[in-house]
From TrEMBL, chain A:
Residues in Tubulin-folding cofactor D ARM repeats domain copies: 322-579
Natural source organism: Coemansia brasiliensis
SUPFAM superfamilies attached to this UniProt entry: ARM repeat
GO molecular function terms listed in the Swiss-Prot or TrEMBL record: beta-tubulin binding; GTPase activator activity
Regions annotated as coiled coil: none
InterPro entries: ARM-like (IPR011989), ARM-type_fold (IPR016024), ARM_TBCD_2nd (IPR058033), TBCD (IPR033162), TBCD_C (IPR022577)
GO biological process, one term: microtubule cytoskeleton organization
Protein name as annotated: Tubulin-specific chaperone D
Tubulin-folding cofactor D C-terminal domain mapped to chain residues: 909-1102
From TrEMBL, chain B:
InterPro entries in the cross-refs: Arl2, ARL2/3, P-loop_NTPase, Small_GTP-bd, Small_GTPase_ARF/SAR
Binding annotation for GTP: 23-30, 69, 125-128
Name under which the protein is recorded: ADP-ribosylation factor-like protein 2
Family indicated by similarity: Belongs to the small GTPase superfamily. Arf family.
Gene designation: ARL2
Length: 1191, 184
């Protein structure tokens, strides 16, 4: 939000304003109202166009304040006041029009836009606030009433927003302190609605008008309900109209709920038609408003039996809104019957008041804090608390208790609030009964397990949610006393981790959230005697809250738990290490799941008190979670946490986990196997010291029934096994030969069964590193590449070959990179080559022949431009090849030297390819290339005095490139990330192009051409094209400067060279447009930007255009005789085009041939389908060929 | 509807106001809080963490956050669900040596955008000590007159005697209420 400026301050006094559009808004509003004021225009059926445009804009502005409507407050009086003044004029004129039957007719729709503006204000800020600024004089009553009446007779024409505004205006007017009868002038000329004629009294007609809207959906129903309730609770009408209305309403609901159907037998709860539902809801809404406006239950004494019958009925509560309204009506009836006296007395007790405390200050005497008056006990509540509770209240409370279990959240929520409000007004004994009744809902259908835990699997999340919401409400209102707290807190704590499995998802996040709400509101109980209860239970509460805050799947629940924790720390200060822990689990750190699970939990676990509860929660709940991602994170967290308390994990948690590895539930099995691995790795020393535990861990693979790793769906179990085996391997467990065999078999199965094998291959690599492979196992992998059943698994085995280490493995992989059948095979082989070389680089890669073979294969990979329906899939191979090259070259700074000595051409080609790849369109690919580029330039050492001529060339080329690189080595760092310390990154295309373009000056033609080709391809396509072109253009400019001065420079390269290179590209392959079109596009752009101005005109531009002309002409000629029937248009277009071109070049006037060509082109009927056309064309061709030799 | 939205709604409904009590250490923040809370002020030790106290003030429910002098608690200035409506900055009027520190801290604090729009009440505390600076002096030392981004006032007070606490609180509560609870 902006800081207030001096400008704003002027407008609204000293108040900072956050309504930043207010100047524009008021200008526009003034204009609109001036336009709307003109009574001559009121007969228009719609507002003038500009007016409605401006209204639309204002509506948009107001709507944008939906989230922070308070920002409008300082301006509201002015906004609403101005608008309503004009509306008032309109309404008066409308009324006069009806009464006097003037000739001028006023349109019903003229003010729609302005009413809509008012409606938008009501929507954003609430109608109660907006109504404050509406006029409410006696004189307004009849005009507004008559206008609405007229609008109502034209329901289809008038807008609902207009009727809504008039309805709420009437609801305000319904409260004028004068007798309605005395205002009634008997407006005569209103048309009849629903057989209510004009001779009825105003009051009767007013009520009937309201009833008309009760079955309307949306705002009108709400407006009418408010209006009717205000009207009916008037002192002068209360006696007669109110009771009549209630009787009518009950009748109405009953009628709607029991439609007279043609099948009287059909008494089952069929869904009611929507009209009936609306009618019921509208009528209930009036009752709700009415009950809350009433002051004494005596007023409805007579109707009470009727109402009790009604609410006893369950025939009409199919609809959730209906049930919510019933809950509302019931609680308001109950509140009406209960005096507020107890509530007021309690309030005085409840919260300390600042004024009292401060006025109380006797110097140096200790003032008695109000809140230390102690808990409310029965003793505190004297006789005056002993009131009679009407029987009906009990009935109403029982309805509300039932509704706490409702399947709709809005109903439960309304019931919870209702019970809270009612309980506040009841004597202690009764209140405590309600509290325990609400608490008892939690206990329904629960079981206590042997170890004292509460099993909730038979409960419904509805009843738990409703009950917890209600407990939170009761707590907020100070109705939970120490005894009840002691009873309830363990259940609330249980609610914090409530979750019930339903198929492959679970329910209960709302329950956990509601439990956090209870925790939060418990913290706000000011009563000191509850502190004692908290002190007893604080550890349990704190540790569970923290567990939820770091290990819940839902970020909203984690944050809610964090908020509740904070509230306790701030208000009760009895949570262990509260402040320190709070800073570890604040709103932001628990918001991101990964951070919460791994970092925050690790930090909190540093505190003794929290360590075991966190581990316990992790190992009993989270690692078995139904959601795979949650489980995986939990396993990672376990790896972090286990070393903090190895003994506890080993003795208390591990046996339980291992016993779950054969669970019939996939999620549990998967979690248990993986968790065993995580523990085996992170506390390996402690486990291997314990023979039993070692045996237990090693037996995991034997304990899982075969069907779980062989049947359908075995993939996940096998992936868990792979992880487990990887863990043991990394921790270098002593496993023995049998287990080694078994593990290998499992790896093989996993590679066959799983789709995503990256992590499995990592685990497999760890396995091979630790335990080696037997010859037959080696062979097995090789065979699988050829014979595995599915293509996917062949690809997986290719990837797994990265774990091997022999000459023939390299050969196989090299051949797959270059000739692999699928793009995935080639990609995986490229990855595997890099991995393999990394693993053996210390020993065998020094063999130069190997190195050449690997680099040659990967260099082939860089040329992979396969495309299929997934797009540029070759880019996968290119990227992986680059990454593998980077790995290999990064580890050996003599590699370039050796390769260029062996095969100079390969090395030169590689430099060019890498440069070309730095201009790739795909950011990640470019980044990989950039890294490789930097490694080549700054990490490779080539001996310039070397004997081999190849290596000298490569060395010189690299050293030139080093000089041309605008980023000098001080910016260079060899970190994994491509960021170079400062702000340069290869993923920023613009910066990357600027960096590599100067390399065009390199004196090696092959290298230069590769780079230019890359730039041309990238430059011809959006969105990166413009960056590439402007980089080349900028470069060409520097070239033109050097043309004169440094012509003798070593590069021997100037802008003419650049043009020549472009021209050469045009000639490389004339059959396809693959390279021609991009080159033309880039050349066009360069010419347009004036980058090639310095070029020698004769040299190449002319050549270029002649060549182009030839090609273009021949293709146009081909088109002119296009054989397809429908292609007349094409022929005609081609002819027209050719004629145009010839004219522009002045060819037509050149000589006779030129003239003849011109006439042939313009006079032949190219649209015809005859031999004439062919004839004309061949003649044309002949003549043109004379000037333009065939391309 | 989750807890966080419930909290936001309740805050508006119950007309809650959130005020941070800040200042250099030993300025008397906790003493003021104890005084407001009607507790004994005979034993006060440095505040370690933070305390939230809720007190009724007329129809408003005022939450005071006494976060001590610790900078580490700063993230809580802006709570996830409630923004800071006001700041009470407590100054030890007798500690002339640290007045410069005090001014710098306050200036830095008010630059936090999380505190934009918050009203500022400066308590020139410890007026009961002989030789304490008056509110005019402190106003100049803290350069309050140059402050345009926040509504502010300064009140000379004494937490020990309780002098002038009420007028200060009355100012800040009503200043806040006048713009956030204008129509409720």
């Amino acid at each position: 939000m902006n800081n207030p400026t001096a400008d704003d301050a002027e407008d609204v006094g000293n108040m900072p304003t956050f309504f930043k559009e207010h100047v524009e808004f008021f200008d526009s509003l003034r204009w609109i109202l001036d336009s709307a004021k003109q009574s001559e225009s009121w007969s228009l059926s719609i507002a003038p166009e500009e007016e409605s445009d401006r209204v639309g804009k204002l509506i948009k502005i107001i709507n944008s304040y939906q989230e922070q409507p308070m920002c409008l407050d300082p301006h509201l009086e002015r906004i609403v006041g101005q608008i309503i003044k004009v509306v008032q004029q309109y309404v008066y004129a409308f009324y006069d029009n009806i009464v006097d039957l003037k000739s001028l007719s006023i349109s019903v729709t003229r003010f729609d836009g302005i009413f809509d503006l008012l409606y938008m204000l009501c929507k954003v800020r609430g109608y109660k606030v907006i109504l404050r600024f509406f006029p409410h004089g006696v004189a307004d009553v009849e005009p507004v009433f008559a206008t609405l009446w007229q609008f109502s007779t034209k329901l289809r024409v008038s807008a609902w927003q207009s009727r809504y505004i008039l309805l709420i205006w009437l609801s305000l007017l319904a409260m004028i302190p004068f007798d309605i009868e005395s205002i009634d002038s008997g407006i005569a000329d209103l048309p009849a609605i629903n057989s209510i004629s004009s001779n009825q009294s105003l009051m009767v007609r007013w009520i009937e008008l309201g009833k008309l809207f009760l079955a309307k959906p949306g705002c009108e129903m709400e407006g009418a309900a408010v209006m009717l309730s205000r009207l009916l609770s008037r002192k002068d009408s209360a006696a007669s109209f109110q009771s009549l209305f209630i009787e009518w309403a009950v009748q109405q609901i009953n009628d709607a709920a029991n439609p007279v159907t043609s099948h009287p037998k059909d008494e089952s709860k069929a869904a009611l038609p929507i009209e009936s539902v609306l009618q019921i809801n509208g009528t209930l809404r009036v009752l709700c408003h009415l009950f809350s406006a009433m002051t004494s239950p005596a007023l409805i004494e007579k109707q009470m039996p009727l109402l009790l019958d009604l609410f006893n009925l369950d025939a009409f509560d199919h609809h959730s809104i209906t049930r919510k309204l019933i809950s509302k009506a019931v609680q308001r009836l109950a509140l009406l019957m209960l005096p507020v006296t107890i509530l007021e007395k309690r309030r005085v007790h409840a919260r300390p008041s600042l004024r009292t405390n401060l006025n109380d200050n006797g110097i140096d005497t200790v003032p008695t804090p109000i809140c230390s008056k102690g808990p409310y006990t029965a003793a505190d509540e004297d006789d005056s608390f002993d009131i009679d509770i009407p029987e009906e209240v009990e009935f109403f409370v029982s309805i509300l208790l039932q509704k706490l279990r409702d399947k709709d959240t809005i109903v439960r929520w309304s019931a919870a609030k209702g019970i809270g409000r009612i309980t506040e007004r009841l004597p202690l004994a009764f209140a405590q009964e309600i509290v325990s009744a609400v608490g008892d809902i939690l206990k329904e259908e629960t079981l206590r397990t042997d170890d004292g835990h509460i099993d909730v699997s038979m409960t419904t999340e509805y009843s738990w949610h409703g009950s917890l919401l209600c407990l939170a409400e009761l707590s907020r209102r100070g109705m939970l006393y120490p005894q009840a707290l002691r009873e309830i807190i363990p259940w609330v704590v249980r609610g914090l981790t409530y979750e019930i499995q339903r198929g492959d998802y679970s329910v209960g996040s709302n329950v956990r959230d509601a439990a956090c709400y209870v925790m939060w509101s418990l913290a706000r109980i000011p009563n000191p005697s509850s502190r004692q209860v908290f002190a007893e239970m604080s550890t349990q509460m704190a540790t569970t809250l923290v567990s939820v805050a770091v290990f819940d799947r839902e970020s909203s629940v984690r944050r809610a738990a964090s908020a509740a924790f904070q509230e306790h720390v701030g208000r009760q200060s009895d949570f262990p290490h509260g402040i320190a822990v709070l800073q570890l689990v604040d709103f932001f750190s628990v918001g991101i799941m990964r951070n919460a699970f791994i970092k925050a939990s690790r930090n909190v676990a540093e505190f003794d008190v929290y360590r075991h509860p966190l581990l316990y929660h992790l190992c009993t709940v989270t690692i078995y979670h139904w959601d795979l991602k949650t489980r995986d994170l939990a396993i990672m967290a376990l790896r972090e946490l286990a070393p903090l308390s190895p003994k506890y994990v080993l003795t208390s948690l591990l046996p339980e986990i291992v016993s779950n590895v054969s669970s019939p539930f996939l999620a549990i099995r998967h979690g248990a196997i993986a968790a065993t691995g995580a523990i085996a790795e992170s506390i390996a020393a402690e486990i291997t010291a314990d023979a039993n535990a070692t045996k237990m861990v090693l037996a995991v693979a034997d304990n899982v029934p075969k069907r779980y790793i062989e049947d359908f769906g075995a993939g996940l179990t096998l992936a868990a096994f792979a992880f487990y085996m990887g863990c043991l391997s990394r921790a270098k467990w002593n496993i023995g030969d049998n287990v080694q065999n078994k593990f290998f078999d499992l790896f093989e199965m996993a590679l066959v069964a799983c789709k995503h094998v990256d992590s499995i291959v990592d685990d497999f690599t760890a396995f091979v590193d630790s335990y080696g492979l037997k010859p037959e196992q080696h062979l097995c992998i090789e065979n699988n590449i050829k014979v595995a059943k599915s293509g996917t698994s062949r690809e997986s085995f290719v990837l797994a070959m990265g774990a091997l280490a022999e000459q023939r493995d390299i050969d196989i992989l090299c051949s797959i990179v270059t000739e692999g059948a699928t793009v995935e095979m080639r990609r995986n082989a490229a990855v595997a080559l890099g991995q393999l070389c990394r693993r053996i680089q210390d020993s065998k890669i020094h063999d130069a022949a190997w190195a050449v073979a690997v680099v040659a294969a990967l260099s082939q990979g860089l040329n992979d431009h396969s495309i299929d329906n997934r797009g540029d899939v070759g880019s996968w191979v290119r990227k992986q090849s680059l990454q593998s090259l980077a790995i290999i070259f990064d580890h050996d700074n003599q590699l370039a030297q050796r390769i260029s000595t062996e095969d100079g051409a390969l090395a030169m080609r590689l430099v060019g390819q890498v440069l070309c790849a730095t201009t790739e369109k795909i950011d990640k690919l470019r980044a990989a290339a950039g890294r490789m580029f930097e490694i080549l330039l700054y990490k490779q050492q080539i001996d310039l005095d070397g004997s081999a001529p190849g290596s000298v060339d490569v060395g010189k080329c690299l050293s030139q490139l080093r000089q041309l690189d605008p980023m000098q080595p001080e910016h260079f760092s060899m970190h994994e990330s491509s960021a170079n310390g400062d702000d340069f990154t290869w993923t920023d295309a613009e910066a990357a192009f600027r960096r590599v373009v100067p390399a065009l000056s390199v004196s090696y033609e092959q290298t230069r051409r590769s780079l230019l080709e890359g730039l041309v391809f990238t430059g011809s396509a959006e969105p990166l094209g413009k960056f590439a072109v402007s980089a080349v253009a900028a470069y060409a400019e520097t070239l033109s400067e050097t043309v004169a001065s440094e012509a003798e420079s070593a590069a021997q390269w100037d802008v003419n060279g650049l043009v020549a290179e472009l021209t050469r590209l045009l000639h490389t392959d004339k059959r396809t447009s693959k390279i021609i079109n991009p080159t033309l596009i880039v050349a066009d752009q360069l010419i347009e930007q004036g980058a090639l101005l310095a070029a020698d005109t004769n040299s190449s531009i002319a050549l270029m255009s002649d060549e182009l002309a030839q090609m273009a002409t021949s293709s146009l000629l081909a088109y002119m005789a296009h054989p397809i029937l429908r292609s007349q248009r094409i022929r005609q277009a081609a002819a027209d085009h050719l004629f145009e071109v010839l004219c522009i070049h002045g060819a037509v006037d050149m000589d006779d041939d030129g003239a003849e060509i011109g006439s042939l082109l313009s006079e032949t009927e190219w649209m015809q389908d005859t031999a004439d056309v062919k004839e004309a064309r061949s003649q044309l061709t002949k003549m043109i060929r004379r000037h333009v030799p065939p391309a | 509807m989750g807890l966080l939205s419930i909290i936001r709604k309740l805050r508006a409904k119950e007309k809650e106001i959130r005020i941070l009590v800040l200042g250099l250490d030993n300025a008397g923040k906790t003493t003021i809080m104890k005084r407001l809370n009607g507790e004994s002020i005979s034993t006060i030790s440095p505040t370690l963490g933070f305390n939230i106290t809720t007190l009724d003030f007329d129809s408003y429910k005022v939450n005071f956050w006494d976060v001590g002098g610790q900078r580490t608690i700063r993230p809580y200035w802006r709570n996830y669900f409630e923004k800071t409506d006001g700041i009470i900055w407590v100054v030890d009027s007798a500690d002339k040596e640290r007045m410069k520190d005090c001014a710098d801290e306050l200036a830095a604090l008010l630059k936090e955008d999380k505190l934009a729009g918050a009203s500022l009440l400066v308590f020139a505390n410890k007026q009961d000590i002989a030789g304490a600076l008056g509110d005019e002096d402190i106003k100049n030392l803290l350069k309050l007159n140059e402050l345009t981004t926040h509504h502010w006032t300064i009140k000379a007070c004494s937490a020990v005697t309780g002098d002038n606490l009420l007028p200060g609180l009355q100012w800040i509560v009503y200043d806040i209420a006048s713009h956030i609870y204008m129509f409720s």
